[in-house]
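#onboarding

Welcome to the new folks! Below is a worked example of what a typical request in this channel looks like: someone posts a single protein sequence, and someone else replies with the predicted structure as tokens. Don't worry about understanding the tokens yet, we'll cover that in week two.

Example request:
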Amino acid sequence: MNKMVSELAVVVAKESSMQGKCEDLLASTGIMQIKECSLRTHLIQTRREEGEEDAEEETPPLLPPRKFPWP
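Example response:
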């Protein structure tokens, strides 16, 4: 019985550690998503400004559209 309790304690400790790492990764992902959106917005604004100056030039997008693996 003590062995099972000890094993359970080890599993709980590992799970707690993984949960902390997961929280850190989710926070980092959120920050990166905000930065990406900001950069995309800046790119759109820059292209519009260039488009006003040179209406004849048409450039393809630098970043492809993102496709998320979930519906």
